[in-house]
Amino acid sequence: IGPAQPDYLNAAVLLDSSLDAPELLQNMLGIERQHGRERRERWGPRTLDLDLLWSDGPPLELPQLTLPHPRVLERAFALMPLLDVFPVHPDKATFEAQLLRLDRAGVRSVAATPEWHLAAVESLGQSPEEASAERSVAN
To answer: Which residues does the annotation mark as catalytic?
Structure first.
């Protein structure tokens, strides 16, 4: 999706928050800005991209946020990590079946271990030292 760009890491986090979804989204956008995110080109390269994909609450449709994310079931790069963090979900089997229908070219899963981040960086063709140096320059 979008313009040519280097490979990137995608991950999902399951969290419990006292914030409502719009407040959580605003906090996530603030974190992106703190990490140098500039929104210049749709689907273009970025330093950090945080998306709110799902909520246990009722569906939500606001100008700035739709939950569940309207395209999560169309994108293997988002659906695969989301399934990794859904320990139990009533629709998990449906989501897994949908994932099998999607183009997964270029989407790889990294084993869930304490050192997952090292394996993920190496899967992008970098050493952990190179990735660390890039992070230092970005900050």
So the answer is: 37, 46, 49, 51
